[in-house]
Amino acid sequence: MLAGQIAFYVLAAAAIGSGIGVIAFRNAVYSALSLIVNLFCLALFFLMLNAIFLATVQVLVYAGAIMVLFLFVVTMLSPENDESLPTPDRLGLWQRGAAVGLGIILAGAIGYIVVGQAALHPDAVATGAQDLASQISRNGNTEAFGQALFHGFLFPFEVTSVILVAAIVGAVVLGRRTSSREGE
Amino acid sequence: MVNIGFQIVHFVITILFFIFLVATNAVIMVYLERKVMALMQDRVGPKHYGPFGSLQSTYDVLKLLLKEIVRSRETDNAIFMLAPMIFFAPVLTAFVMLPFSPFMTTSALGTGILLYVALSSLDVIGVFMAGWGSNSKYSLIGGLRSTAQMISYELPLLLSLVGVVMLTSFVSHNGIGSISFTDIINAQMHPWWLWFVLLQPLGLIIYYTCGLAETNRAPFDLPEAESELVAGYLTEYSGMQWAMFFLGEYGNMLIVSSVATALFLGGWSGPGADLAFWHAHVTANPGGIFSVADLIFNVIAVFWFLVKVYALQGIFIWVRTTLPRLRADQLMQYAWLILIPMTLLNILVTAVLLLAVPQPYTLWVTGGVNFLLLIGYIILLTRAIGASPKGTLPPWVEARKRAARTGLGAPGLPKPPAASLPPGEPEPAASR
Q1: How far apart are CA B427 and CA B424, in angstroms?
Q2: What sign does the dihedral B90-B233-A72-A92 (CA atoms) show?
Q3: Which residues contact B170 (CB under 8 A, 6 or more apart)?
């Protein structure tokens, strides 16, 4: 128990520190690298909760693939040299106001969940957790995840894939060169 | 507390074992690479130190350990120093999921394949940091090339393994597939020669190609192309930092070969690797944790595993001596236009066949169709890369023909070398 707590606090400190680093660094590459550390810490949190499949996928998708793309784009565009992009000292008044408002809403939501957790129906939480635990012990973590994804939540899963395909098609349409500029 | 103490000891022993494994493998592979390349290029290779030059790589390691670490003044210090560690750490971590024999596994991880791909995608960050932190143009170009290449080849690498996972769901008793290496090896044990390479040869070929690209080996070694980029992202590194990148690269080769062995070549299975047989015939049991039968079985199992791994690593060297380096655009087209559609087709065909073909013929038909797909892939490849010299002409002949066709003289064109066209011989005709 003690080892788990120590690990949690070390991880929490690393996660918060890297999270601050994301917005505090002036250099965009440093910010992106801090974000990688932050996402990796999140994966380790999943690992501490025995959700090894989620931890693996977190590293694979976010810390690996997506962040590497971020780094790639940051290096290619070097946004710190681009005067047209907004930096903290070029923000307008309404942007600051919106940031404060959204931050208050976010803090309120997190506080509501943390404080109001006891108000959730305790029996429902307990039975749901037991159900999941028995499934995991019977088939293993990955298999339980697969069962839940393709039997319990198949429809949301398919809807998500349709949304992603729409996003890809949109990106292709927006990024396509028009024939007049290309010349052939 | 006893439990935690045991875990720490277990952890330290495992890490030390893997570090020595990676280092030893690198020394062996450097020597083998030089000797085999020398053999294939009709040279002698290293011969001065030790019998047949076998101590050459040991001396190399000593030299690297004693070398001063030189750093240019303009480097981005933190990123520059961290990059070799971030490159090397995932390589060491990836060994936790590899089963060398049924008893030599560090953990029976349920997410074997995914963890492997996740760790290999973390490698990219180390390469990128090396390229960026060096603050040199060669390094940056090498790092960006490597990033683009590794992102592109990660997709077909993962997709080529899906066929194997689907096969485990067919072979296993309860109909649930697995992505854990131990389970996949066990699925290839009934009978012991039913390796998945017989059912998924296309998967193995594509996986191995992507493995070559992921480890930045020839013909995909654009990131460190020495003829154009000095040494790519390694340009500014020296001494032990440089050696860490190379340890990581050779460790990656070991991992790629081990994963191919476990998923496609049956892991530790081979003649004699049969636990029940040894339990039945060797009854001597001096007590302790391992019986003699277990010991014999383990030695044979590890032997077969290592034989397959080193055969695959030999193919790495063979490919390096055989194939020329790809161009950057060829590299990308190969990944996105050939490999990814082929892997998707493989997944589709395998899934349909496993579901549609009736029971006793399923594996036969699946394997046969996959071999046909492999042949189709090879034909497609030869068409795409123009491997045949038939119909190709020297550039100046093409230019002259184009000039004749359009009626325009090509003003800036260099004169064709006179010696290459013997007098009296007609101009080579287009056979295309």
Answers
A1: 9
A2: positive
A3: B354, B362, B363
Task: Residue A69: give the domain boundaries.
Answer: 1-85
Peptide bond into B389 cis (omega under 30): no
Q: Between vectors from CA B299 to CA B295 and to CA B305, what angle results, nearest 5°?
A: 140
The token pair that represents B360 in the structure block: 């006793």
Tokens 């090879």 sit on residue: B378
CB atoms within 10 A of CB A39: 19
Question: What is the tally of helices (H) and strands (E) in chain B?
Answer: 16, 0
User: CA distances (Å), B180 to each of A4, B186, B216, B303, in order?
Assistant: 26, 10, 26, 22
For chain A, how many helices (H) and strands (E)?
9, 0
Question: Is residue A92 one of the residues assigned to a domain?
Answer: no
Q: Which pLDDT tens digit goes with each residue over A117-167?
A: 655 555 555 566 666 666 666 656 777 777 778 877 888 888 999 999 999
- CB neighbours of residue A99 within 10 Å: 11
CA-wise closest residue to B125 among A144, A162, A70, A44? A70
Mean pLDDT of chain B: 79
Model-level ipTM above the cut of 0.85: no
User: Is residue A50 domain-resident?
Assistant: yes
Residues A52, B179: C-beta atoms closer than 8 Å: no
One-letter amino acid at A34 equals S
Rounded CA separation B190/B197 (Å):
14
Express each pLDDT in B244-268 by its tens digit: 888 888 889 999 999 999 888 888 8
Confirm whether A20 is domain-assigned. Answer: yes
Q: Domain limits of chain B?
A: 75-287+297-348
Task: Answer whether A53 sits within 8 Å of B178, measured CB to CB.
Answer: no
Instruction: Provide the CA B349 distance to its chain's centre, in angstroms.
Output: 25
The answer to whether B235 and B134 have CB atoms below 8 angstroms apart is yes
The whole model's pTM is what? 0.78
CA distance B157 to B214: 9
The count of structural domains within chain A is 1
A44: contact with B, CB 8 A cutoff: no
The values of phi and psi at residue A73, to 5°, are: -65, -40
Residue whose pair of structure tokens reads 């045991």 in the numeric block = B6
Is there a domain that residue A25 lies in?
A: yes
Three-point CA angle B395, B400, B405, nearest 5°:
125
Calculate the CA B37 to chain-centre distance. Answer: 18
**How many residue pairs bridge chain A and chain B with CB atoms within 8 Å of each other?**
74
B418 touches chain A (CB under 8 A): no
d(CA B119, CA B252): 11
List CB contacts (< 8 A) between B4 and chain A: 3
Helix, strand or coil, per DSSP, at residue B416: coil
Q: Please name the amino acid found at residue A141.
A: N
Nearest to B245 by CA among B94, B151, B130, B97: B130
Give the number of residues written for chain B: 432
Tokens of A120: 């959730």
Q: Which residues of B touch A29 (CB under 8 A)?
A: 79, 132
User: In angstroms, rounded to a whole number, what is the distance separating the alpha carbons of residues A82 and A78?
Assistant: 7
